[in-house]
């Protein structure tokens, strides 16, 4: 199985925590509350700005202020918050500290989540170097590849194991979430092995849409598709026109 990832060449990645949160969503309490996917994806955005407000000493924020800051309309914010009950008061807004505490617990910011990286090619190396430094609760704690030039080494503080040790290490380290950056021709094969060991979530950077049982959550991140979508909107609407926001 060749895991060297040449597909993305030397793509320098700035990674968004939102995608990893969506992977974890299925196994969290929110999954039973029927929180819409779009709402779940916005929660880390709210959390980051609330953290900024708290650091600045802000005690209260309105949905309008929040909307201006995160570029989400206030009606959408109120609807998102309504899924979790009464988080604010009409005419008063939201208490920053209490709302921050709520989202800290909801987003599992109060405990460390270890994830594993499968495939240490160019994209994998970029992820190792980044290793979620902007997040206090997520880190890559193990990486796997078949390249014997890098297995048995430590890169950016992360040990790189051989693929032969993957199942054992994932079990010993109790890792349930995977970042998958292998070539597409081996993606399903690797996924099948991950399912066997009980993985609950996969952040899939491969072009292949992998098949998993319902008990496993997959979040697909197709960098090529995202770039093509951006190019399409720029071509269709132009840089100075109003383009639809996601």
From TrEMBL:
It is found in: Cytoplasm. Residues 45-84 bind DNA. One of its GO terms (biological process) is response to redox state. NAD(+) binds at residues 119-124. It comes from the Bacteria. Residues 108-209 form the CoA-binding domain. The keyword DNA-binding applies. SUPFAM superfamilies: NAD(P)-binding Rossmann-fold domains (SSF51735), Winged helix' DNA-binding domain (SSF46785). One of its GO terms (molecular function) is DNA binding. Keywords: Cytoplasm, DNA-binding, NAD, Repressor, Transcription, Transcription regulation. One of its GO terms (cellular component) is cytoplasm. Its main location: cytoplasm. InterPro entries: CoA-bd, NAD(P)-bd_dom_sf, Rex_bacilli-type, Rex_DNA-bd_C_dom, Tscrpt_rep_Rex, WH-like_DNA-bd_sf, WH_DNA-bd_sf. HAMAP family: Rex. Belongs to the transcriptional regulatory Rex family. NCBIfam families: PRK05472.1-3, PRK05472.1-5, PRK05472.2-3, PRK05472.2-4, PRK05472.2-5. Homodimer. Modulates transcription in response to changes in cellular NADH/NAD(+) redox state. This is Redox-sensing transcriptional repressor Rex. It comes from Liquorilactobacillus satsumensis DSM 16230 = JCM 12392.
């Amino acid at each position: 199985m060749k895991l060297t990832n040449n597909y993305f060449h030397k793509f320098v990645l700035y990674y968004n925590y939102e995608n990893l949160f969506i992977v974890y969503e299925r196994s969290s309490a929110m999954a039973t509350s029927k929180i819409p996917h779009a709402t779940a994806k916005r929660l880390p955005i709210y959390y980051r700005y609330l953290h900024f407000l708290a650091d600045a000493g802000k005690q209260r924020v309105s949905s309008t202020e929040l909307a201006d800051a995160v570029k989400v309309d206030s009606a959408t914010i109120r609807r998102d918050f309504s899924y979790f009950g009464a988080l604010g008061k009409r005419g008063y807004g939201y208490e920053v500290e209490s709302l921050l505490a709520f989202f800290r617990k909801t987003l599992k910011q109060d405990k460390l989540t270890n994830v594993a990286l499968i495939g240490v090619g160019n994209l994998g190396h970029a992820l190792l170097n980044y290793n979620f430094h902007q997040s206090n609760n997520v880190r890559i704690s193990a990486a796997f590849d078949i390249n014997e030039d890098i297995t048995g080494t430590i890169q950016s503080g992360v040990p790189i194991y051989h693929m032969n040790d993957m199942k054992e290490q994932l079990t010993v380290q109790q890792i349930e979430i995977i970042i998958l950056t292998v070539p597409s021709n081996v993606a399903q094969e690797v996924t099948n092995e991950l399912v066997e060991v009980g993985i609950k979530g996969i952040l899939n950077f491969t072009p292949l849409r992998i098949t998993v049982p319902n008990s496993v959550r997959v979040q697909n991140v197709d960098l090529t598709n995202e770039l093509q979508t951006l190019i399409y909107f720029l071509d269709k609407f132009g840089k100075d026109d109003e383009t639809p926001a996601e």
